[in-house]
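Hi R.,

Here's the chain you asked about this morning:
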Amino acid sequence: MESSEIESRKARAKAWFEALRDEICAVLEKLEDEAPASLYPRDAARFVRTPWQRNDHSGAAGGGGVMSMMHGRLFEKVGVHCSTVFGEFAPEFRTQIQGASEDPRFWASGISLIAHLRNPHVPAVHMNTRFVVTTKAWFGGGSDLTPVLDRRRTQDDPDTIAFHAAMKEACGGPNSVADYDRYKKWCDEYFYLPHRKEARGIGGIFYDHHDSGDWDADFAFTRDVGRSFAKIYPELVRRNFQTPWSAEDREEQLIRRGRYVEFNLLYDRGTTFGLKTGGNVESILSSMPPEVKWP
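And here is the predicted structure, written out as tokens:
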């Protein structure tokens, strides 16, 4: 591949992730405004953006990103982060990344989102998409939904049905470069806590090393994942944010959040990747819930 072509692809991917970040932040701030004052009496919050820079393992400049965090009345904690990092993988990490054994240089750009809501009736959610370049180039990402009340953690719950339909739509029809059934199954298997013998949430889609051979089609698919998320999740928030909750609901929510912490610290590859490549610790660990309990 010509260097000018890969540089153009990097620039297009980076610009998309940042545009999607801006769109999602605006939508979530609007929801923060719309939340009924009877249930959420505080003033509406806004995202605070904090830039950061990193060095690679050799000490050379290695890019960075911008954290966008909001601690609000509806969104107890939500982060929408973009980063573009580059450099060389540390020797002990090179064999774990596709294409890095031959040449340790890499470039990666992406968006990552995690939302924890104050209202237990509104599910938590995670979404990320990324473009990674080593001696190979691929897309990865996905989105998954985590209801925090057991009575909502079913495949026939309206939120679950709507979310899965949105992710299926993102994968497109029979001629698409994305295999919905495969990526749904991958999500179910990935977001699983073996020590609990239970799923983290109700699933969605998850994919990595996505390279069909048609870069434009792969990029279009990754954009569709972002667009589908930006459409369906605000709908789910509006559907539920007027529902009152009890102290028992809040207790159940805090305990379920503990499962989220366990997965992210024990099994999540994104957390490992970020920490081992010198990423911003505050950004990486911002996925943690603001309040949690282990009974």
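One quick note: The mean pLDDT is 94.

Cheers,
M.
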